[in-house]
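Open question from group meeting: does this chain pack into something compact, or does most of it stay loose? Before anyone orders reagents, we agreed to write out a predicted structure and look at it together. Recording both the input and the output here so the notebook holds the full record.
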Amino acid sequence: FLPWAVSVFWEKCYRLAGFLFPMPLSLQSKGVSRRSGLLVKQIKKLKQQQYNWVIGHNPGALYPVYFGAKNFNAQAAFDVEDYHPGEGNNPGEQRLTKLLMNELLPKLDYVSFASPLMKKKHIEDCGKEGKNWTVVLNFFAADDFKKLPTGTNNNHLLKLVWFSQNINYKRGLEQVIPALDAYKDKIELTLIGNMKEEFYKEYVAPRPHIKIIPPQEQKALHHLMGNFDIGLAIEPGKDKNNFIALANKLITYFQSGLYILASDTPAHIDFLNTFPQHGMAVNLEKENVPSALNKLLLSAKEIQENKNTRMAASAAYSWEKESEKLLQLWKNTSA
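Structure tokens returned:
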């Protein structure tokens, strides 16, 4: 407990100090995350043996990756799944994270990015592109998805689905659910996840036409997608990361063959410009959502009948194929 408590104290100190004077990378990293210094300590305890790669995945691991690679004479890599300088609302953490990433990412042997716009943003931040910077999207295994039933369903409702770990505020649902009230005899919404009580009382309890399914294991969740027509990817863009990150749910809908109704973040727009037959983007301002729902209803038959066409098109994309990028990086960079 004591090492953890000490690291928390120094994390706060270094975040404040970052505004006052320049700091070495080792101290910047401790201001980014209390875990960084603890990781470096553990790396120092590791026996000297042959490691080929040191790979990290979150901001607290970035400096330890750099340190560990030098310590073991290994190669260093980092997976950028989110735009970490744009997460949260702590300016000290954001500033140090940006400084650290700008300094270290170009020095690594490869960096993978979870969206094209994330890579573009880091090139802008760093002022250059590092070697072997590659976009690796978070596609899922191909066998997670099964062929979908086509045609209109028995109750003639257009079936929408949204899922997350928690069903709660600030996820875009507040903008969409009230707009669905005027279409409850034409559109059915299913929410999958842990229902938060206050959200349930305000938005779900008064609407018996909304269905709730508890959280599902990944493959079961993906199989469930065959019961729906349209997937909602309605992240409200609450910070810079949300604007340029691709939500896993959008990838799930894409591989499932569902038509996607997405909020108009730059990342969603970029994705749907690449795959225009797979969905549409909508501004979540109150007056825009009903207009989007009307468009979906006018195209309902086509949306339902083209499920397997969309799924066949998305079959060219899977983790089996996307992961080949990493295998090639490991092979070519290690040569």
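Observations to bring back to the group:
Residues 2-17 form the longest helix (16 residues).
The mean pLDDT is 91.
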